Structure formats: structure tokens, C-alpha cells
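Note on ligand handling. Small-molecule inputs were canonicalized before submission; formal charges were left as drawn, and no protonation-state enumeration was performed. Where a ligand contained multiple stereocentres, the stereochemistry in the source SMILES was retained. For pyridoxal-5'-phosphate, this procedure yielded the string shown in the input block below.
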Amino acid sequence: MRKKSIPYGKHNIDSSDIKNVVKTLRTDWITQGPKIAEFEKAIAHFSGAKYGVAVSNGTAALHAAVFAAGIGPGDEVIVPPITFVATVNSIVYQGGKPIFVDVDPETLLLNPKLVEQKITSRTKAILAVDYAGQPCDYDQLQKIAGRRLTLISDACHSLGARYKNKKVGTLADLTAFSFHPVKHITTGEGGMVVTSNPNFVQRMIKFRNHGLSLDNQERVKKKTWRYSMQELGYNYRITDFQCALGISQLKKLPTWLKRRNEIARTYDGHFKKLQDIQPLKTLPHVRHAYHLYVIRLKTDRSGISRDDLFSFFRKKNVLVNVHYLPVHLQPFYRTRFKTKEGMCPIAEQVATEILSLPMYPSMTKREILYVVNTMKDAIQK
Ligand SMILES: *Cc1c(COP(=O)(O)O)cnc(C)c1O
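Structure output:
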């Protein structure tokens, strides 16, 4: 048995990252300075969008996107249940009503056919989630959204992914990223919304700074102390030294994405021989970013349950995880929005079968094999 545990995800900080952070710490601007715009430009460019607005975390990015889309009390927003609670919470922060729509069982991505059936006159937006790192069916979602609805992408799993050779920042009206350590690149905590619509940018720049009309740098430039607050905003700012880390991390992302795909291919190869283990489907027109590597356990054959499998891995010091318990089954949502079992039957069923295996660029061959062999041991017991 391994002494050192294998996590399901892990960040990667090297000496050049540290050097860049320290360099920024020695300047006059450790927050609200020039590194923020530099990071915004770099991520926008990388993801194919015109603009980026950096914020303090991925949840704040989603909240800013929902704000920019003009979601208010009573507005309905279509969202899948298989996601982190933050996706849906961001709708509720603005008083919106989440409308849970079921997912495709093979990809766990929002099913466009079911989306269409849930559109009403109160629908304002679709908030799609690129689960595990694979973009949703954006051609269909864009068609459904048309000009009336705003299409928002929770791309916290899919930085660097592509759909029909289009970059992930170009597929929706607003796209949110997270830079939490478990994601593709990190700023400690951090997030960003990318968009090609300058009106959204203006709204989000105010939103992340209390709703104030002019930020500190603009007031200096315009030689004024005056500002006004027209809408409620928050302090969702990110610091310059975090952005310095992000800029430094981004340089390594292409290599890391390749490595994530290599690890996925290795897992795929081994699990092809295991009848009970079914990796989620990767669509042919997609470049997967593999934030997560998720398998479904077909319990009918092996007789072992997902929770048994989870415990077996944990006992062997492999820190597998489950992403996610369907959000509509969380007590808060049951109480506030009267959601319940049966509303999204596919998500509810598949959620009992899924397990996320370790996936991070610095994973060694030995670690991958240890995970594979642990899986074999578990299902042959
Ligand atoms: C990580 C994540 C978030 C939230 O990001 P934070 O930076 O942790 O706030 C939102 N949605 C999804 C799908 C995520 O994976």
C-alpha cells in the first residue's frame, strides 16, 4: 500500500511562478494595478474572446456573468443539476429561479432537446456547464437561445477546450473560469469572465468594485475623487500578485492540457478491458480539457456499489471523489424551490454510478498504474 496518498487533482507551482509573484509584491501595485489587465488580456486571447474581467474566484465570475446578463427576481435560468453548487447559487444571488434540465447520460452535459421544452416567457438565460472539461453542444444551445436569451457558459472545467475547433471562450455570450488550485491553472483563489461584448465588460468592471462608476486608477487618470454607485456591486477584486501567478501559470497550460489527455488515453486503454467500468463518452468534435476523469460503474455486473468502490480507493490511499450530488437534491434547493427526486431522473441515476479518478499533469506513470490496479482489485473482489 502507498504511504503517500494520490489526490484527485493537484496544482503545480514552480520557481518561475514564485519569482513572478515576488516581483509583483515588490512593486507599488499589489492590487488594482497593471497585472490585472495583463492577465485579462492573456486569458481572453488564450480562450478566443475579446475581453476578460478578472475577479476573486470562479463563483464571483459566475455571479458577475449572471449580473451582466441582467438576471433579476423571478427570471428563469436553465441549468443542469450535475454541477458544483456555485453554478446554481450564482442564479439565486440575483433573485433568479433555477430551472433544472436533465443531462445526457453518456456525457453528463445539458441535453438541448430537454432545454427546448423548458423555455417559457420568463426564461432569461441558459447557464450550461462544460462538465469534466468537455464543451456542451453549443450549436444547439445557441440556436435555442437565439437573440432573446443570454447563453452563459460555466467553463470552470474546460479552460483550453474546443468545440468543432472553436475555442471555449467563443461559444457563449459570457464564459466563466475558475483558478482554484484544483483547476487547470491557479491564482490561489481567482476567476474570470470572458466575453466579446463590451457592454457586459463595463457592467462587470463596476460589479466587481461595489458598483462604483470609476475605479481607483480611472479616478487618478481623471484627476477626480468623485464616483457614483448606480447599482449594487461587491468587492470581488483579485490582487496583482495573484494575476502575476496566473500569467506565469498560463504559459505552461498547453503542455499540461496535453498531459491530461495522455493520462485519459492511458486510463481509457486499461478500462476498455474492464466490463464494469465505463468512462464518460468523449465526443468526436471536441478537444477535451480533462479537468476530471469520470467513470460510471455498472453495478449490475460487478455487484459492488459506487460507494463501496469509493471506500475501497480511499482505503488504498487514492483520494477519488464524486462530482456531483445533483444540485436539485440539496436541502436548500428542495426547501426554497420545491425540487425533488424524479425531476431529473437521468442525473439522479448516473450520480449513483460516477467516480472521479485522480487527474493532474504531474501524475507519474506509477501513480496511474496504481490507480488502474486498485480499480482491478476492487471490481474483482
Ligand atoms: C470550481 C467550480 C466553480 C467555482 O469556482 P471557485 O473558484 O471555487 O469559486 C464553479 N463551477 C464549477 C463547475 C466549478 O468546478
